[in-house]
Amino acid sequence: MHAHHPALIIIDMQQGMASPAAGSRNNPAAEHQIAALLQAWRAADATVVHVRHISRTPGSPFWPGQPGVEFQAALAPLPEEHVVEKNVPDAFIHSGLERWLRVRSISKLVIVGVSTNNSVESSARTAGNLGFATQVVADACFAFAQVDYAGTPRTADEVHAMALVNLHGEYAQVVTAADVIDALSRP
C-alpha cells in the first residue's frame, strides 16, 4: 500500500441504505462514483477502508444478522481491505480507526458514502479536528430528505448541500470524484 496516497474511507454503503424504506434521497449516481473511486484506489494500490454501521437498536435494518447490514455487492471489501465497524455515526468513535491510520502513517483521507449530513459529516469533522488532511467527495455522497428544526421540509439536495457547506474550509475540502481520481494518478 502507498502511504503517500490518501486513504479512501467508504462510509455505510450497506444494503439497508439502498432500500426504498430509507427515504427520498439525492445523487442517484453516488454509487457509480464510489465504484469509480474504489476502482482507482485499487489500481493505485492505495489504502481503502470500508466502514459499516452495526446498530444497537433491535429492529434496525443495521442490526447484526439482518440483510441491511451487509455491504452492497458492487462495493464490497476485498479480503486485504480494512473494515471498521461502528455503532454511532462517527467512524472514529470507539472504532480504532484513528490508531489504524496513524500506525500506517496515513495523514490524508478521502471520505465518501452516506449519509452526507450524518455519518459522513460527523466522521469528516472528527478527521479534520484530529489533523487529517480531509477531502469529502460531494458527488460520491448522498443524503435523505428531512424536516428541519423549524418544521420546514427540506429536500435531500438541500440537506446534502448544507452538510457540505458545514464541512468545507473548516474541517475538510469538498471536491468531486474527478478531482481526487486526477490527483491520485499524479506522482
TrEMBL record:
<dbReference type="Pfam" id="PF00857">
    <property type="entry name" value="Isochorismatase"/>
</dbReference>
<dbReference type="GO" id="GO:0016787">
    <property type="term" value="F:hydrolase activity"/>
</dbReference>
<keyword id="KW-0378">Hydrolase</keyword>
<dbReference type="InterPro" id="IPR050272">
    <property type="entry name" value="Isochorismatase-like_hydrls"/>
</dbReference>
<dbReference type="InterPro" id="IPR000868">
    <property type="entry name" value="Isochorismatase-like_dom"/>
</dbReference>
<protein>
    <submittedName>
        <fullName>Cysteine hydrolase family protein</fullName>
        <ecNumber>3.-.-.-</ecNumber>
    </submittedName>
</protein>
<dbReference type="InterPro" id="IPR036380">
    <property type="entry name" value="Isochorismatase-like_sf"/>
</dbReference>
<feature type="domain" description="Isochorismatase-like">
    <location>
        <begin position="7"/>
        <end position="178"/>
    </location>
</feature>
